[in-house]
Design goal:
Rossmann fold; 5 helices; globular
Amino acid sequence: MATILIVEDEEWIASLMSERLQKAGHHTATAMTISEGMAKLKELKPDVVTLDIIMPDCSGLEMLRSIRKDPETFAIPVVVVSSTDESERAFSLGADGYVQKPVNFSKLLDAVKHFAVLDKVS
């Protein structure tokens, strides 16, 4: 299955997302800040990134911009998972999916499965 990087500053949400994704057969890594997320992104080259917008050190939308500008990471699918409704802005910056909090795990799993499959086919 896929390797998924979860960028989420709420430890309990990151833990729950990781648990659910692992139960679905995926490998996960978590990052609690954008800077940690960027470092793990470069190190792990995950199949999919889930990205919160409201983070302590920087906006998740800034990380999304950085991912899309970098030739090494621009093709990695990003599913934004946020309590804010900034889906239009996220999609305009290159998000591949958007899941509103509280997280609907079936939607999250569907998005991850869809993008992980697309990534493997490419």
